[in-house]
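Human:
I keep going back and forth on a fold encoding question. Comparing notes only helps if you start from a blank page. Show me how you would write down a chain together with its backbone fold. Write it directly below this note and I will take it from there.

Assistant:
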Amino acid sequence: GLGRTYRQHAAFAPRGTNVDFVQVVDKHNVRMRTYERGVEDETLACGTGAVASAIIAHLCRGCQSPLQVQVRGGLLRVAFDRGFRHITLSGEVDPIFEGYIDAPA
């Protein structure tokens, strides 16, 4: 319920925003859950949210690079330098959908 409430909060009008809930486990591990704009529900992962959460965990809670970000879809790794000029996001990829679009003749 909170994800939907914050996603549509007036402060983010008119388009709304993604909402990430983050729990710091220790200086190298955080847990994150995402309510995603457009999907209008919780998603298994959000790369942008994982990077943002890692940087905020570093700035506000003293977490250190690299950080493991546990999301519902698995484990992501975020690494960054002191000036945040070089940031990497890595993790396993599992296809959840495959589709084809026929090209017009």
Observations:
- The chain has a mean pLDDT of 93.
